[in-house]
Every structure is written in C-alpha cells, then in structure tokens.
Design goal:
By secondary structure, the chain is α+β, with helices and mostly antiparallel strands. It is built from 18 helices and 15 strands.
Length: about 575
C-alpha cells in the first residue's frame, strides 16, 4: 500500500461513527446504474471552480453585476456596447467565451421568505400583514416571478490544471479590466457555486448542499462519487427535436438566420417572455489575419455567384443587370465586415446563439417555443430546433465553456465581434435586496423594488424623495418610517415635522413628540456651551460657538451686514 492510500485510509478511520453512517447513506442515495451522467460532457470539476472539460480544454465561470443599459442615453449605450466589443477583441485564438443567462421562476415560498415581515405576535402584526399583502401582490401580478442570473465562462487550451489556471487568470483579468470602465465587476464562482448553477438547470428546484468535502471522504473510503453523480437527474432522454431532462420536457433552439441589421433588445426581451430558459452565446475568435482571409474568400465566392447568375441570364438573352436581393445584401454585408475589421480591429468569431426551454408539460413547452419565436420574428431572428443533437445543445447551454454544437458547421455563424457584442448582456439594475422594504414597481423590468438601506451593495444608506405636489411624497415617507419600525425596531427615527403630518404615526408606534415654538416649554439655546466634562482639550468652545453664530446670522439675514468679532458697548446698542 503506497503512502497516498495509507493517508486516505487514515482519513476515513479518524471519522466518528455517525459521520461515517451519514456519508454511507449519502453514497447510497445515488443510482450507480444511472446512465444520464454520460450525457454531461466534461471530465472533472475542482473545488476551486476550475473545470477540466477534455484532456486539453479547461474553463472557469464568473458572475457579474448588471448595469443600467436599456434606459440609458444613446451616447452611454454606445459607450457600453463599444466597451463590451473591445473586451471581446481581447480574447486570443486559444480562448473562447460563453455568455449564459439563466432565467428561473422564483417560487412563492422563496419570494415570501425574502421579502415578508416575520410576525412577532405583538400589537404591530396588523401592519406587518398589510405590508406583506402589498409585497405579495407584486408576485401575484407576475411582476417578480422570474430572475435572470448572468455568467461569463472562459475556456482555454492547456496541458495541465496549473497552466490552465494561469491562462484563465490572464484572460479574465484583461476582460474584466475593460468592462470595469463601465461599472461591471466579475466575481469567480467556486466549485460548489458552479455546481449549484448547473444543478439549477439539470435538477431544477432541488437543493445541492456542499459536497466537495464529502466527495473527498468517500473517495478515501473507496466509495468514489463525482460531481456528475450529483448533477445527473434520473434520466436524460435526447429525441429527434427535443430532450427530456428528469421530469421536464425540454428543447434547445438555435438562431438559424439573422437580419443583416441586428438589434440589442432581443436578449432582454427573451428573458422576459414569462418562461424559464437558459440563453447561451458562444464566441471562438479567429486571428486577425485569418479573419481577413476568410472574409475576402467569402466575398470572392459571392461575386462568383453573382457573375454566374448574370451569365445564366445572358444565355437566355436577359441583360437586366439585376442579381437576387439575397446575393446583393450578402455582398454588401461582407464588404462592410471587411471595412469594419480594417477600421476597428474587430475579428471574426465562430458563434452560435442557443436557448434551452424546459417546462412540466409538452403543452407548456410549445407555448414557450411560440413565445421565443414571436420575439425572434420581431427582431428578424429565425429560431429553429437543433435536429438530432439535442444532447450536444443541452451541454452547450450548461455553463461548461464548451460549444458541443460546433461538430456540425451548418449550425455555426461567422460573425464579427461587433455583431456578437450587439447581444449586450446588460439591461437594468433591479433593487431586490433580501429583507428589503417594498418601494414600488420598477417600470422597466416590472420587478418589485425592495430596498434595504443597510445592504452592503449600497455605498451609503441615504435617500431623497422627489415629486410634484400631491404625488405621494408624504405617503412614501410614512411607508418608509413604518417599515423601519416593523423590521428594525431598535433603529432611531427622527422627524422634523413643522406641519404635524406624522403625529399619528409617532403616537401609534410609541414615539415621543417634542414641540419647539415661541410659546412652548422646549426651546433651543444657541448660546449654550458644552458641559465641561464633554469638552475636548483640543477645541476652544468659545471660538467654535462664535464662528457658528457668525455663519448663522449672515445666512438668515442680509440686512445685518458684515459681522466682526468686536465687542459692542451696551450703551451703544
């Protein structure tokens, strides 16, 4: 027995009996004859988040934050799009990029857990129930039922995990640095986080608990499991035009044809069709020289077809000089791409646009497909089912970083990085803080606005309410105050209320009212000095008070004139 085996055996022997029993039960929950793991096309996922796809290909996945794009001014949109294209142009010939947009339905139970005020069985539960009903109405109206998570997966060619980590780090660094100029931040996914993202697609609505330590211990006990065992559903059944995953009916569609003028709104609208989906856009760049050579070769082929058409007409004594519209547009498109590559440094990429739809029934799946094709028709994109290779399409939408569909060149498109970049993955920033207070509806995304002023994603908790007379400013403030008292009863709420609008709230929630007026018993003494025990030895309280009074008087009255620090005799006043 070698040292490594001895070490593993010792690791297992040191476990307590209950822990061993738990691990054995965990091991026995997996069917060793489940062949669906064979439909997951990768070799190994490491705890660090690095994935070995094949002997030569490795990948890593990064999440990223959204930024305001859809409703930004045109100039800002152009800047964001240009920056994204520049980032794509930084990829080398050995790198590849997969953009993944995973849209999933948020269960009502999850939504309530994240947004509702927990009842505390006190006198204020009646208000908590009312606030809960208000936030739940956004879910019932279908405005907060879906959320889209977005990821970049980088793939590289390497001969070892160490080399792969190094190359992927360089790739991510240059890509991330470019996007950071428009406020996009990338964060790496660990192996567990990556497992959970893939599991949400292969085994939706099933919790995947932390497993990597358990996998190590089981391996030491001679009962090895892989991450594929964790991810694999009961069955994966590819068919001619669809693929059934577990209990779900699914289908992978691809964009068979684009309009020559592409639109940046298509991706956003596809994530808002009201169905769960996974969008994947793959881009494998060619070198600059190879890109130029390929475009010029394509231009020659089109010109040959145009000439052949004219010669065919001449043989029939037709000399109209008109060639088919499709050939004219294709020739114009190639010329524009050649000019673009020459002027901007863009490159050609081997690209494909995929969308995976999955539903509980065949009828629901057909409705989802119709919704996708309706959006495609709006933007001139022809969505078609992948024939015969639905299993390859399914793996290509998983954030593995590998485009398994490129085994058939007929499905691939050679697009410039500008064309790939038009599918901008940014839309709008949704404020849906966990434990946040309901502030209304985001009119752009139809999501509920839930704000927690203590959330770490905010630079500070300040807020300002603007609005015309009668627009509801006071009501918004009251909701904010009540919401604060219900969720954070230990927080201090201080209101300056010259018109007495908030007296009822103060009384209802056990607050204290302090009246300050010329005839009240409470007053502010502007000349009062701090108590001796509270004074700092580094400060002169007299100088501070004089400077304060000079500033105050010069601000509230222009008739006083210039003030000085001179003492005025009482007889001259």
């Amino acid at each position: 027995m070698n040292l490594n085996k001895k070490k593993k055996k010792k690791l297992w022997q040191h476990l307590q009996k209950p822990e061993k029993q738990r691990l054995i039960r965990f091991y026995q929950t997996f069917d060793k004859h489940n062949s669906s793991r064979d439909y997951l096309y990768y070799q190994e996922l490491y705890e660090s988040g690095l994935m070995k796809i094949t002997d030569d290909f490795y990948s890593k996945t990064y999440g990223f934050n959204d930024i305001v794009y859809s409703n930004a001014p045109t100039e800002k949109q152009d800047n964001i799009w240009g920056t994204y294209v520049d980032a794509l142009n930084l990829l080398t010939e050995e790198d590849a990029l997969q953009l993944s947009l995973v849209t999933q339905r948020v269960s009502k139970a999850q939504y309530k857990n994240e947004t509702n005020y927990p009842l505390k069985h006190d006198d204020f539960d009646v208000y908590r129930k009312e606030f809960n009903a208000l936030t739940n109405s956004a879910y019932e109206a279908g405005k907060s039922n879906f959320r889209t998570e977005k990821y970049f997966t980088f793939r590289t060619v390497a001969d070892s995990p160490v080399r792969a980590n190094s190359q992927l780090a360089v790739c991510r660094q240059s890509f991330s640095k470019e996007l950071s100029t428009v406020g996009v931040r990338l964060y790496p996914l660990s192996g567990q986080e990556r497992l959970e993202v893939m599991g949400s697609i292969t085994r939706p609505d099933q919790f995947i608990r932390p497993v990597f330590n358990d996998l190590k211990l089981l391996k030491a006990a001679g009962r090895p499991l892989s991450t594929k065992d964790i991810l694999a559903p009961n069955t994966i059944e590819p068919k001619l035009m669809e693929i059934n995953v577990g209990e779900q009916f699914g289908r992978v569609l691809y964009v068979r044809d684009y309009q020559y003028s592409m639109d940046d709104r298509m991706v956003k609208e596809l994530t808002e069709i009201g169905h769960e989906s996974v969008i994947a856009i793959h881009a494998q760049p060619y070198g600059l020289g190879e890109s130029s050579k390929m475009l010029r070769s394509k231009s020659v082929d089109i010109e040959a077809q145009m000439q052949k058409y004219e010669e065919k007409g001449a043989r029939k004594n037709r000399f109209t000089g008109i060639v088919p519209r499709k050939l004219r547009e294709a020739h114009k498109d190639v010329d524009e791409q050649i000019d673009t590559l020459k002027d901007t440094g863009d490159r050609l990429t081997s690209s494909i646009f995929l969308i995976y739809l999955h539903e509980d029934s065949e009828e629901q799946l057909q409705r989802a497909i119709k919704s996708v094709r309706r959006v495609g028709d709006k933007f001139g994109a022809d969505f078609a089912s992948l024939p015969l290779i639905q299993d390859c399409g399914f793996n290509s939408v998983l954030p593995l970083g590998m485009n398994s569909v490129d085994i058939e060149s007929t499905f691939m498109r050679k697009l410039s990085t500008s064309n790939v970049g038009i599918n901008v993955p940014f839309s709008n920033v949704n404020l849906e803080h966990k434990g946040g207070r309901y502030q209304g509806i985001n009119l752009l995304s139809n999501s509920a606005i839930l704000v927690n002023r203590k959330d770490r994603s905010l630079k500070n908790g300040s807020g300002v309410i603007f609005g015309s007379a009668g627009s509801g400013k006071s009501t918004a403030v009251k909701l904010e105050v009540i919401g604060t008292r219900l969720r954070e009863p230990d927080d201090d709420v201080i209101m300056l209320d010259p018109e007495g609008e908030y007296s009822v709230i103060t009384q209802e929630f056990g607050g204290e009212e302090i009246e300050i007026s010329p005839d009240s018993n409470t007053y502010l003494n502007l000349l009062e000095l701090p108590h001796a025990d509270t004074k700092s030895v580094k400060e002169n309280p007299y100088s501070i008070k004089v400077n304060f009074l000079k500033t105050l008087f010069s601000t509230i009255s222009e008739d006083i004139g210039e003030l000085s620090g001179e003492t005025v005799p009482l007889s001259n006043v």
